[in-house]
Amino acid sequence: MWLLLLFLYCNCFYTVFSSKESGLCNEDNSLQSCEKLTILDRNEPSIFILHAEGRLGNHLMAFAIVMALAKSLNIRPFVEGDTASFLRKYFKAENIPVFEETFCSSEDLQPEIFNGDLDVLLDYKEIHKGRLISLWPWGYKENSPVCCPADELMTFVSKTNIQEIKDTLQFQSKFSEHAANVKNKIANQLNSSIQDITFIGVHHRRTDHLDYMMSKFNKKPLKKSYFKEAMNYFREERETEKIAFLYVSDDMEWGKTELKKLQKKHKDIYFEGIGNEETDAIGFDLALMASSDHTIISRGSFSTWCAILCGGEYYGEYGPIISLTNLINQQDKNHKSKKNSKKRKIY
After folding, report:
1. Between the CA atoms of 16, 18, 21 and 22, what dihedral angle is there, to the nearest 10 degrees?
2. Is the dihedral angle over the CA atoms 158, 289, 268, 227 positive or is it negative?
3. Structure pTM?
4. Contact 38/14 with Cβ under 8 angstroms?
C-alpha cells in the first residue's frame, strides 16, 4: 500500500504529450517518423512500458503482458529495445511496439514507476489515461518469498489474449524447419507417419536455476520420479498408437543418465535438445517444444512458454493442466459473444 501511496503522491500531476516528428533512424540508417513526447491529454490512452532482463522467457513474458494490458485497459503498449532484439532473433516479429523506435529522444523521457500488484493496476483507472508509466522495472513482486509471482501475470495473459500472442510469435523458418526435421526423423525410425505419433515435449530447466529456486523459494530440484509419472500419464492418455517424448534441457546429460532405465524399458524417449546457450540452439529447442502435441514442463519462464506456444495439454508440478487450445477456443467464443451483443444493442 505504501508503494501505491508514494506513486500517487509523486506522480499525480505528471502528463505527457505525443506528436509526430521525423528523424529517427532505422538500423540501415534510413529515416523513419517518430513521435515527440511532451504532454498527453487526460483522455488519451496511457503509455505503458515493460522492462525485462534475463533470458528469452522473461522477454517473451514482458511482451505478452503488456499486449494483454493493452487489450484489457485500452492503453498503448511498449517493450524496450532489448526485448525486441531478443524476440527478433527467433520470431518473425514485425509488429512489436518498441518504445525507443517510436519516440524521439526516448532516453530523455522519465516515466512514472508502477511497482504494485496486478489487481491494483487493473482497478486503478486514474492511470489508464494520460500517463507515461514504466511497469515493474525491478521485476514483478521481486521480493516475494512465495513461488512463483510471474505465474499470476501469465494467468492474466492466458485469460486475455493468448491466441493473439501466439499468432504474433511465428518462428523463423530455420527453427520451424529444425523441429519438422526432428519429428520426421523419429517418424522414420518408428516406420510411421507424423500424424500417427503423439509427440510430447519434455522441458527440464536445471543448471543455475536449481540454486535460484532453492535459495529464493526453498524448492528442491525435480526428481526423475516426476518425469516418470508425467510420461506415464501421457502414455495412458495418448491419442495415437505410438508416442514420442522429446527431451529438451540445459543439462542433457542429466536426462540421458537419470532416464536411461525408462528409455530402455519403453523405448519412446528421444534426447533431442541441443541444450546450450547459443542463440540458435535456444531457438531450435523452443521450436521443437512448440511443435509438440502436448508438453511436460519444469520451472522457469522458458518452460512456461514451451507450454504456451505448444498449445496442447501440459503436465506441471501439480499434475495435468487443461489444454491451452481449449482456453483459446473459449476466448474466441467469448469475443464473438461480445461482438454479437454489441450488434444487438446497435440495432
Report:
1. 90
2. negative
3. 0.81
4. no
Report, as an integer, the average pLDDT of 282-287: 97
Instruction: Give per-residue pLDDT as tens, 306-347.
Output: 999 998 899 998 888 866 555 555 545 555 554 454 343 333
Instruction: Please report which confidence band the pLDDT of residue 98 belongs to, taking 50, 70 and 90 as the band edges.
Output: very high
Rounded distance between C-alpha atoms, residue 304 and residue 306, angstroms: 5
A 10 A CB-CB count for 27 gives 6
Distance (Å, whole) CA 262 – CA 226: 12
Matching residue, cell 522473461: 58
* Fold of the 173-329 domain: Rossmann fold (3.40.50)
Residue 328 identity: I
- Whole-angstrom Cα distance, residue 347 to residue 343? 6
166 Cβ contact partners less than 8 Å away, ≥ 6 residues apart: 308, 309, 311, 328
Where do the structural domains in the chain lie, given as residue ranges? 2-168, 173-329
Concatenating the DSSP letter of every residue in 206-226 gives: -THHHHHHHHHH--PPPPHHH
What phi, psi does 159 have (nearest 5°)? -85, -10
Nearest CA-CA partner of 304 in 83, 153, 154: 154
Nearest partner of 312 among 300, 304, 322, 303, judged by Cα: 322
| Alpha carbon distance, N-terminus to C-terminus of the chain | 45
Matching residue, cell 523458418? 173
Q: Which residue has the cell 498408437?
A: 241
What is the spatial distance between Cα 224 and Cα 230, in angstroms, rounded to a whole number? 10
